[in-house]
Amino acid sequence: FDGQLFLSKMKGKSMMFVGDSLGLNQWQSLICMLYSAAPKARVQMSRRDPLSTFQFL
């Protein structure tokens, strides 16, 4: 998995995970992989039930 490439291709775009705990696990795994690919990146997380957003700045 090339997290840097993924971040560059997704720049300015949004992605939504909808569903049950499986969707939550996929979302958490993606964020973990992206953060490990860019550990010095600034990130912003917002939680407002029922939505959580995570943004690489």
From TrEMBL:
Query: One of this protein's Pfam families, by short name?
Result: PC-Esterase
List GO molecular-function terms, semicolon-separated.
O-acetyltransferase activity
**One Gene Ontology cellular component annotation held by this UniProt entry:** Golgi apparatus
Database matches in InterPro entries: TBL, TBL_C
| Region forming the signal peptide | none
Q: Which domain of life is it from?
A: Eukaryota
Name the record gives this protein: Trichome birefringence-like C-terminal domain-containing protein
- Which PANTHER family does the UniProt record give? PROTEIN PMR5, PROTEIN TRICHOME BIREFRINGENCE-LIKE 9-RELATED
Cite the Trichome birefringence-like C-terminal domain residue spans from the record: 1-56
Q: What family does the database annotate?
A: Belongs to the PC-esterase family. TBL subfamily.
Give the taxonomic lineage as stored in the record.
Eukaryota, Viridiplantae, Streptophyta, Embryophyta, Tracheophyta
